[in-house]
Amino acid sequence: MALEVGYVVSMLFTLFILLLCVKHLIQTTKNNRMMKKKKLLPPGEMGIPWIGETYEFYKAQRNNKLFEEFVEPRMKRYGNIFKTRLMGSSTVVVNGASANKFFLSNEFKLVVSSWPSASVQLMGPTSIMEKHGDQHRCIRGLIAASLSCTSLESIVPKICRCVELHFNAHWQGEDSISLFRSTKMLTFSIVFKCLLGIKVESGMLEMFENVLEGVFAVPVEFPGTKFWHAKRARLGIEEMLLSVIRKKRNELEESCGRENGDGLLLSRLVASLIRGEISEAEVVDNVVLLVFAAHDTTSFAITMVCRMLAHHPNCYARLLQEHLEILDNQKVGETLTLEDTKRMMYTWKVARESMRLFPPIFGSFRKAIVDIDYEGYMIPKGWKVLWTAYGSHYNEQYFQKPLDFDPDRFEEPIAPYVYVPFGGGPRVCAGYQLAKFNILIFLHFMVTRYNWSLIYPDERITIDPLPFPFHGMPIKISPKL
Ligand code: HEM
To answer: How far, in Å, is the centroid of ligand 1 from the Cα of 113?
Structure first.
């Protein structure tokens, strides 16, 4: 009996030791993995908890020197990929065409786009920027259909009308205007009238601008804060859009079958709503998102093209010549056609070069949804990844004398993912075509109808977090006779 007890005790003891060994083995493997992860994290400084290098990042952004003061010095110290901590998030900043390709094309597989909480709440949690997989494809399909080749034929004269009306209402009789403000108003009405097919009512622009003001604010809904005002403005917009959507729904249901008659985006979204593919909230959220995506980006692009033209009179003379030739080939009373816009090749080179130097969106954040092994480094799941256009646009490996303004460099084809003002991969800009026509057509009317000059030729550009000219880029104008 005593022998049996001793046997059981020794068995239990052996089992206990064995368990300890297994536990130790698991722990050691875990530690080794952690060590390995730690060892393979990209180089860089995480700074103090939460804050990290947020201050340096914002300071550089405000000076419009994000590349020169934040990205470039770290690239020199650590290489094309480095870690930092921004606004509480462990972040890896990646630079160069192969990084752009890797992270942008692996959207949904390795990373997903990541927006601040205030942006998601104000744009709406069901907008395209929060969609993945099939739902993302569905919304993109609707936007793409409204900007397909056949729709573009009709969009060009519509944009022309919008631009002419804008010049008549806001430029005629003035001797100076704020170019940034003017192009913001114009872009707003182009998105509503030409893309969505919604009439612009007075006060709408202000309501949307109040929402946009809060998109990057601290999401504290306390009376008086930017975010609080933005949330209130968003409620007003929801109310207004819901009545427009319901009216359109009635029209489409009554016309049964001829649902996409006008081919405009609102009709397509509402037709999709009737088919049960998307909800009313999704229609509202995506309209708000489109205005946000189009507004400051296109207006900043136009503003910077004008600044570059003012600084480079030879380029301006060539661009003007291109537009005078298009005018010469027009019959009296005719407006621009899609074919005419295809002849604006030099103008588009100027615009591309300007967006290379001054990308309206300098880059954006992604979040790793799995542990990512990239270039021998580990990017742990949950970390943010920031890709920047600067990383390739300002790199002499891709562009000779990258800081020079030289539209002719676009005569040569550019390798994929090198030139990325419109992003790339599944989230590449859905409004690229609209932005292109908006820029080309605006410049056509501006240079053929007005003499103009910058009031502050070296006006400061700041980023907060989208770039804008500090004084709104005022210009002197006088009509050409
Ligand atoms: C010069 C003007 C514009 C520039 C530089 C620009 C740039 C960009 C960039 C870089 C992205 C990708 C962001 C990312 O990867 O996180 C993007 C996405 C997007 N853009 Fe634009 N954009 C412009 C104009 C427009 C316009 C006019 C519209 C709409 C009418 C628009 C609609 C969108 C939408 C809906 C997305 C999100 C696509 C998605 O998530 O699938 N953009 N844009």
So the answer is: 13
Q: Could you give the domains of the chain? A: 42-124+366-401 (3.30.43.20)
Give mean pLDDT, residues 322-349: 94
Distance separating alpha carbons of residues 51 and 49, to the nearest angstrom: 6
**What are the start-end ranges of the H helices in 329-409?**
338-342, 345-357, 390-393
pTM: 0.91
**DSSP states along 422-448:** T--GGGS-TTHHHHHHHHHHHHHHHHH
Instruction: Please tell me the least confidently modeled range out of 48-57, 341-350, 445-454.
Output: 48-57
Show Cβ contacts of residue 119 under 8 Å, excluding neighbours closer than 6 positions: 129, 215, 216
Beta bridge partners of 176: 476
Instruction: Check pocket membership of 435 for ligand 1, CB cut-off 6 A.
Output: yes
> What's the 429 CA to ligand 1 centre distance in angstroms?
4
Tokens representing 356 are 């290379």
Q: How many residues does the chain have?
A: 481
| Average pLDDT, integer, range 376-402 | 97
How confident is the model at residue 9, as a pLDDT? Answer: 55
Per-residue pLDDT for 38 more than 80? Answer: no
| Cβ contacts of 293 within 8 Å, gap of 6 or more | 429, 430, 431
Judge if the beta carbon of residue 186 lies within 6 A of ligand 1. Answer: no
Q: Is the CB of 195 under 6 A from ligand 1?
A: yes
- Tokens 């001054």 correspond to 358
CB 456 within 8 A of CB 462: no
d(CA 262, CA 322): 33
Per-residue pLDDT of 176-198, as tens digits, reads 999 999 999 999 999 999 999 99
DSSP state of 456: S
From residue 170, alpha-carbon distances to 26, 29, 157, 419, 444 in Å are 72, 69, 20, 34, 17
Query: Using 50, 70 and 90 to split pLDDT, how confident is the model at 262?
Result: confident
Q: Is 294 in the pocket of ligand 1 (CB under 6 A)?
A: yes
**Contact 461/64 with Cβ under 8 angstroms?**
yes
DSSP 194: I
State the Cα–Cα distance between residues 348 and 144, nearest whole angstrom.
21
- Closest CA to ligand 1's atom 31: 431
User: Are the beta carbons of 436 and 338 closer than 8 angstroms?
Assistant: no
